[in-house]
Amino acid sequence: MLSKERSSGMYRLSSCFIASTMVDLPMELILPTAFVTITYWLGGLKPAVTSFLICLTILLLSVLVVQSLGLAIGAFVMNVKFGLALVTVLMEIFQLPSRFYVQNIPRPSFRGSNIASHLSDSSSEIQWG
After folding, report:
1. What is the 3-state secondary structure (H, E, C) of 35-82?
2. Where in the cell is it found (predicted)?
3. What is the CA radius of gyration of the chain?
4. Within a 10 A sphere around the Cβ of 55, how many other Cβ atoms?
5. 115 contacts 63 by C-beta, under 8 angstroms
6. DSSP element (H, E) containing 33
7. pTM, rounded to two decimals
């Protein structure tokens, strides 16, 4: 449908992308906000409003980064099966510096790798915030 509308000159691709992003943005932000609002207080984390707002901000920024990463991979990779395999491998690689799987990895062994991971900063801020 997008190809048909683009070929007839109805609108540019950038306007379609911006409209799609604006339509998806409320759901991309409302669901994580509801999740954090429930689990933060039930999880017994630091009972301060500022800590909750920091946690919520970090989570929402992480959601936007992951959404952007998914859009970029979707734009570069045209084969769906290869794209799914690539995303799976990248997510596993990004989880290693965040110490998601193993807690007792010496920090120098991953020197510089936490820069590329969107999870390393967000998980450390939420845990130690």
Report:
1. HHHHHHHHCCCCCCHHHHHHHHHHHHHHHHHHHHHHHHHHHHCCCHHH
2. Membrane
3. 18
4. 19
5. no
6. helix 13-42
7. 0.65
